[in-house]
Every structure is written in structure tokens, then in C-alpha cells.
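Spend some time on the protein that follows and explain the fold to me:
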Amino acid sequence: MARTAVPGRLTWRVATLTETTALTATARRLVLDVPDWPGHLPGQHVDLRLTAEDGYSVQRSYSLSSAPDSVELAVQRVDDGEVSPYLCDVLPVGARIELRGPVGGWFVWRPTDQAPVTLVAGGSGIAPLMAMIRTRALEASRVPFRLIYSVRTPDDVYFADELCHRAREDAGLDVKIVYTRRTPEGAPEPPGRLGVATLHTHGWPAEFTPMSFVCGPTGFVETVADALVALGHDPRRVRTERFG
């Protein structure tokens, strides 16, 4: 999928890590202080660049998980990766890192859009969708959101407490978590993959002409997007972001 850059925002900035907490056993939340941050649209991403003492550098893209008034990333550790193990296990609070962005213009939700929204996430694909949920709350938007979130086990849910709280306190946000390997004790449904029936039951129906945002591993995204189209959704209103 092609990305669209916002003009003038591809300059590298030096950001400072101000807070880091665990999201799961293999993922961390990073909060960055970015001088002159211009704000962002929920769904956009940033590029991070690490440079070694010998001059070798490597960069990776990470979706923003925060509302536009702050810069927060959710980083999943990839054991054989060059960047994520350092970000998750080594980078200390107070450290500086190069960042540029925000980048992206297609996979974004704008609070001025009044159509119902279906969000579908696989694993760490919740990150940009969390930015949409938080922005909706910040803007006091009344646009109804439905989130369908697929994870392996209860231990793999990002932002678990926050999602539970927001769904409980906000009648306009519905959250459905699908467990593919192991469910919580006492769960009424067995584990299983997210399928057409779940999308049909917990997403907005096609006749409501919702916007649908799908993010996760490539195979997951393609399967969900195809299922939404099969359910009658306009392909132009199914936005996808994939990784891996």
C-alpha cells in the first residue's frame, strides 16, 4: 500500500524517551517528547532511526498509538530484529532517538467523518486503531466505534485495562476480543480464528456504509478485507495497514 507523506514533516528530529512500560511480555509502550511536534492524524506512523558509533544506521516505521497531543508507540519485540529488541529491552528513559513524521494520509480517521467505524486488529495491529479510539475520546466525538481485536491469549492483549475501561464507560465504543489459542477462564466461547460470522455480528453492517480500518499481519489483513467485501462492504471504504 502506498503511503502519502505530509509535506514538510520528513525532517529528522531528536526525540527523548520520557516513559516506558510493558504492554505484554513481549511488547512495550514508549512515550516520546518531540520538540515542535506538529500533531498527527490517528492512523499515521513515524520513522525511527538508530545510528551506531561506527556510523551504521537502521530505521523502522512504527504506528502512533496516541491521540494527536502526544507521541506514543507500541513496539512488539522481534527476537531476531535489529531495532525492536533495543527499543524494548535496552533504551533507557532519558535516551534520545531520531524520529521523523508523521507520515501517512490513507489509513487515517478524521473526527469530521460522521460515518460509523469498524476497527479490526490482529495482535500489535491495535496500535494505530488505539490512536483512533483515543482521538475519538479526546474530541468528544459521538461517532460509534466497534473494535474487533484478535489475539492468541489473554496475555497478548495490548492496552487491556484501558480498553476495558473505555468500553465500560463509553456506550459509543463496543469491544470484542477474539482469542485464537486460549481464552480467559470461564469464557463462553472456545478459542478460534476470527471469521465472517464474527465480523457480521460485531462489525457494522454494510448498509450503514461504515468506514472499516483493518491492521495486522499481511495474511490476517487480506483475509479480513476479503470477508468484509464478501459481506457487501464497499472496498473503497475498507482501509488496510499490514506488516510482516
In short: The longest strand covers residues 13-24.
